[in-house]
Amino acid sequence: MSVTPMMAQYLEIKAEARDALLFYRMGDFYELFFDDAAEAAAALDIALTKRGQHEGRDIAMCGVPVHSAESYLMTLIRKGFRVAVAEQLEPPEEAKKRGSKAVVARGIVRLVTPGTLTEDTLLEARAHNYLAAWAEVRGEGALAWVDISTGAFHVAACPQVRLGPDLARLGVREIVLAEGETEAPAAIAAEQGAAVTPLGRSAFDSASAATRLKALFGVGSLDAFGAFGRAELGAMGALVEYVELTQRGKLPLLRPPRMEAAGTLMAIDGATRRNLELTVGAVGGRKGSLLWAIDRTVTAGGGRLLERRISAPSTDVDVIRGRLDAVDWAVTDEASAGELRDVLRRVPDMDRALSRLSLDRGGPRDLAAIRGGLKAAETLFARLAQTDLPLDLGDLTGQEALRETLEAALAAEPPMHLRDGGAIAPGFDAELDEVRTLRDEGRGVIAALQGRYAEATGIASLKVKHNNVLGYFIETTAIHADRMRANDTFIHRQTTANQVRFTTVELSDLETRILNAGARAQDIEARLFAALRKQVIDAAPAIFAAARVLAELDVTASLADLARGEDWCRPNVDRSRAFAVAAGRHPVVERALKSDGVPFVANDTELTAEDGAAIRLLTGPNMAGKSTWLRQNALIAVLAQMGSYVPADSAHIGVVSQLFSRVGASDDLARGRSTFMVEMVETAAILNQADDRALVILDEIGRGTATYDGLSIAWATLEHLHDVNRCRALFATHYHEMTALAAKLDGAENATVAVREWEGDVIFLHEVRAGAADRSYGVQVAKLAGLPDAVVARARAVLEALEEGERSGGAKPKAIIDDLPLFATTPAPAPKPVKDNAVEARLRDVLPDTLSPREALDLVYELKRLV
């Protein structure tokens, strides 16, 4: 069977799309065929149909409407697909000029992948969407990353051992790797949830990358951007080539690359990020994370900046203090900070609007976003320039002319799409106003012309009419025909029995303009929009700079609002090895408790290490708050070094270079790792990497194996932290034997979480005190958890037998087991039933509402005798 021209075109384009699903534009639908249709129909849960045959088989087909395609794209991208979008490159009328059976020209205009999204509906407004590329040259690695929706472009040295932590920090959605060298880095990327895309090795060539980058930024040298090595150049060049490939030559407005210097950010690996739930909660999403607890930003740009700072706290004391000074100002000058937040609430997302405009995917509302952002920037500069806010506000000004042009040109509420019309404000362009008048008020224009002609000829009965044959014409009675012919303005068209019809050059021209007014109005708006878009793109560097300052102002004001509302304090951050927190609190737990009206019990931490290690060995029962105390101190370090106030009465934080946390239990069965194996891998990473300025949080090391094995591992781990790593560490354990180490190791001290026992139950005080716990209260916690009374009672008996055996000289486990009736062949007797028949019988006759207090008391005594 011969292939139809349309199907031949489809197969040709599909060969270009390769492994991507092909959205093939046909009128108002994107159609998918063959295997693409089957996969898409299953993923999108839409109907799978068929259209003709190919090579003797039915052609599977499905489709989605063009107007709602973004929602389907979002589903496909989230399920791991890549989508090539093939659009019609000409109107059908143009194709018909080549013959009645000619196929409309089509071509791929965009490749949609996880790291190349720009539409608001496909992105999280308050989170970056990073695309990265990693290159390695002679053992030196580098990572480049870009968010094409905002233009942010960065590069950093990144050996392969740092690839996982850096991908975790950035939350990279997609990474480009050189073909043939992807196995190890691809495995690392997959572990961090990034989609892996191989690219030809030539894209990573440093020499051609340098040429490509210089052309992109219009410079003769890259020295102004930084001193880049071959690996950095290769990663950046591959990134730019891939973006150009997916956008089909339409590069977004990328900012000049910023080199991230080594050692300027707190190092936090992926396991620690998960354990501390910095930006993602335990069940996914933001809820329950530190970001969720503190985010009071009111702009999308501010939300993204806050996430970046939480993900990568600074280690530069000057930077940290500068940020804290700004928050200080907003805390102190509450009135100015309040006005600042009121203006910021109206600030649109200029970064993403500008990126869409640069890719020619923007609409009138993106221009309106630039207009609104620039107006807010000017307003804030006028209000804040006279204050002592320690931030450079210079980038908020300088675009008054562009803002005035946009205000004059754009409608107050422009439509979503340019094709909807009405984007340009009335009065901005005389030609557009005239065409709109013709389009919208054609009858009135004709009536005005009729009146003018009647007055000029003196014929009051003269009419301008219309029919489908002649179009518009001037009609008068036959008796006035000679007067009309005598006027050279009027041209005879037709004579009927009683009427004579004329036209004029003006009327013919007006008719043409009225008939074409709608299309003409669209053409004029498109031309004006293109001119405005060009002006905005030409001003992109200044707009990006203004957006950056607005985001920084938002973060500053939001952190101040948080500090005032939650009674947080400014931390003292310096270059010492101090770590002293008075009345510290866990920000996430405190927020959760506050919603239930329960106060949080604050605790002190003293972990200062002038020379050598500083370790606190924490013991106490489960549920007493050990993990909370450990985590809250780590979060206080993150907050302090990101430039925020902290939840405490006071805090002195010597800069933490690395943050490690091994808290909680999880397995990795997909990679063949048990819970204990995961625990050991993470512990090994800490012991192999932590330096003397690190803060290490360890909870229950060794609990996943036999008691003596676990104790020995925990013991050796603590000694290694003290002797080799020489860091600051909080170490929680149930192995009470380890408390003896506090007397042997300088800088190591015991701490415990206080509890009280009352009538066999345990009451958690959640107070961390100096000293060691004498036991773990596990049976009491089991009772609180709801274990059956029989199980709890039996557990107490077993525990007493085991403890007695230990006190009497270490009885053998088998001897103890033999003495326990639980393990005898005869089952333990069933509990004696409660004697309650007589009580029930007596209570059946009682009417509680009729009893006096004395009668009720007599009844209690009576029931007591029946029991």
Automatic annotation (TrEMBL):
Domain DNA mismatch repair proteins mutS family, chain residue ranges per copy: 694-710
Keywords assigned by UniProt, alphabetized: ATP-binding, DNA damage, DNA repair, DNA-binding, Nucleotide-binding
Record-linked SUPFAM superfamilies: DNA repair protein MutS, domain I, DNA repair protein MutS, domain II, DNA repair protein MutS, domain III, P-loop containing nucleoside triphosphate hydrolases
DNA repair found in the keyword field: yes
Residues noted as binding ATP in the record, renumbered to the chain: G620, P621, N622, M623, A624, G625, K626, S627
A Gene Ontology molecular function term of the record: damaged DNA binding
InterPro entries in UniProt: DNA_mismatch_repair_MutS, DNA_mismatch_repair_MutS-lik_N, DNA_mismatch_repair_MutS/MSH, DNA_mismatch_repair_MutS_C, DNA_mismatch_repair_MutS_clamp, DNA_mismatch_repair_MutS_core, DNA_mismatch_repair_MutS_N, DNA_mismatch_repair_MutS_sf
GO biological process: mismatch repair
Keyword Flavoprotein on entry: no
GO CC annotation, single: cytosol
Signal peptide positions on this chain: none
UniProt record similarity statement: Belongs to the DNA mismatch repair MutS family.
Function (record text): This protein is involved in the repair of mismatches in DNA. It is possible that it carries out the mismatch recognition step. This protein has a weak ATPase activity.
Protein name: DNA mismatch repair protein MutS
Organism: Jannaschia seosinensis
